[in-house]
Amino acid sequence: MSLRDAGPPIALVVIFLVFSALSSDFRTIGNVQNIMDTAAVLAVVTCGITFVLMMGSIDLSAPGIMGASAIAVALLVANNRNDNDLGLIGILVAVLLAAALGCLSGLALVLLKVPSFMTTLGVSAVGLGVATLMFAGVQPNISDAMLKGWAVERFLGFAYLTWIAVGCVLLGYLVQRYSRLGRYAFAIGGAEEVLALSGVKVAPYKVAVFTLAGAFYGLAGVMVTSQLSAGLVQAGKGYDFAAITAAVVGGTLLTGGRGGILHSAVGVLLITALTNGLVQVGVSPYWQGGVQGLIVVAAVAAAVVPQRRRNQVTK
């Protein structure tokens, strides 16, 4: 393990020690449980965006895709707008809708040759449009006991949503570590031209990665609906930047080819613990966004400096 790999976990430990010294409430078991529960949705979104970042692409579609899946699931499970009561099938349909929107991002990228941040921004707008059409001016409130229970029922002290997030991190790691999709995502980010020259058709794997990311965003939208007991068009607002922040802080490079799911998971905990600690010690919420921005800049700079040194020509 390199120093860069060890840096984020060390920073996480330091943050816990510092805020534990500054606030007695921070180091309580209840607050640790709160940090984990708060990190659940962000962790799932970050799982999806990490695969895209590993390819060296940028994905800004999370807010729109999450909004579409949130409204879709709210209208498909038991709710106050219609007589639907599809339960797990409704959740599956919402995730599939999100995966389809993610697939649209991938297809636009490989067929139109448009930069990923532009295609995904467009797909986010499409998702928000679909969500607004389904919203139809009346907020759907859910009454499905199972979906509402995800946010309120607990197992071993943690909400079901937290365990779903843990499962997503584990699934993402297994895909990254043991599947061809995960290995090729790394290879595309590291040296796409070399991979293409070796005979691998890169385009289908790019589409597959965006589709997988869309599915993660869709599940995150369902989780937000569980937390709010209602479907909101803006369910995913801000999660794109927060997920990119967490992934970069955890050690996943924006240029691709380095990092991964476990790195990004550490980044999620680091960002969530930092935000929680700032609240515990009385720092204004208006400063927290600025602190996150500074952390991203510092993390990117720390990752780029070694690359610059490695790329220098010795004469």
From TrEMBL:
Topology in the lipid bilayer: Multi-pass membrane protein
Tagged with keyword Iron-sulfur: no
Main location: membrane
One Gene Ontology CC term in the entry: plasma membrane
Pfam family, one: BPD_transp_2
Subcellular location: Cell membrane
GO molecular-function term, one example from the UniProt record: transmembrane transporter activity
Entry-linked CDD domains: TM_PBP1_transp_AraH_like
Stretches assigned to coiled coil: none
Name used for this protein in its record: ABC transporter permease
Organism for this UniProt entry: Nocardioides currus
